[in-house]
Design brief:
149 residues; mainly alpha
Length: 149
């Protein structure tokens, strides 16, 4: 019933890795709030984190938006049409913001010292993401409802 040697070795390796990461980030006390996506060792893990977390938030907000817009019925569409559009916008926002955050995390890891918040490439990426995330989805999804207004 106790812990076998393999489990103990695996746990010790994980704790040693955590201690190294804490040292790299000048932390001596472990807190959940102190964990950052940049602590993930592999690039694909950081991408997975950014996409999954933002997609989950986008889905929740999309469902809420779909219920709200569909429930109001001010677009003149059937409830399921507006609900589906709200969910689609939420998923699209989640994916786009997830990709944006992943690029931001990667950029911050490559720069020396603190992330350069005002750099031109990240600013241009921000403009593209916001344009794609806000202007295009609304124009595309609600283009059929323009005659209601």
């Amino acid at each position: 019933g106790g812990i076998d040697a393999r489990d103990r070795a695996r746990d010790e390796d994980w704790l040693a890795s955590l201690a190294r990461r804490m040292g790299e980030h000048s932390q001596s006390v472990f807190t959940i709030e102190g964990l950052q996506p940049s602590w993930l060792a592999r690039r694909k893990d950081r991408l997975g984190y950014a996409l999954r977390s933002r997609l989950a938030a986008g889905l929740i907000l999309g469902i809420a938006e779909g219920l709200y817009v569909g429930g109001l019925g001010f677009m003149g569409n059937p409830f399921l049409v507006d609900f589906g559009r709200g969910v689609a916008v939420g998923i699209l926002f989640g994916i786009l913001i997830g990709l944006y955050d992943w690029a931001r995390i990667e950029h911050g890891m490559r720069s020396t010292g603190k992330p350069r918040r005002g750099s031109v490439p990240m600013f241009m990426l921000s403009l593209v993401v916001y344009f794609l995330a806000f202007a295009l989805p609304f124009a595309w999804l609600w283009r059929d409802s323009a005659d209601v207004w």
